[in-house]
Amino acid sequence: MQRTRIDWVAEQSKLLRGIAEEFTRTQPFAGLTIGTGIHLEAKTVALLLTLQAGGAKLVSTGNLNTTQADAVERLRAHGATVIGEATKDAAVHATYLAQVVAAKPDLILDNGGDLYMHYLQSPYPTLRGGTEETTSGRMRLEPLRDKLNMPILVINDSPIKQFAENEHGVGQSALESYLRITNKTINGERVTVFGYGSVGRGVAANFRGGYAKVAVVERDPVLKLRAHLDGFETPSRDEALANADIIITVTGAQGVITAADLPKLRSGVILANAGHFPEEIDVAGMLASPEVASQEEYADELLTLRLKNGNAVHLVARGHMFNLAGPRPIGNSIEAMDLGFALQARCLEAVARGTVTATSCVVPVPATIDAAVASAYLETRYQ
Ligand SMILES: NC(=O)c1ccc[n+]([C@@H]2O[C@H](COP(=O)([O-])OP(=O)(O)OC[C@H]3O[C@@H](n4cnc5c(N)ncnc54)[C@H](O)[C@@H]3O)[C@@H](O)[C@H]2O)c1
Question: What CATH number has the domain spanning 163-324?
Answer without folding.
Answer: 3.40.50.720
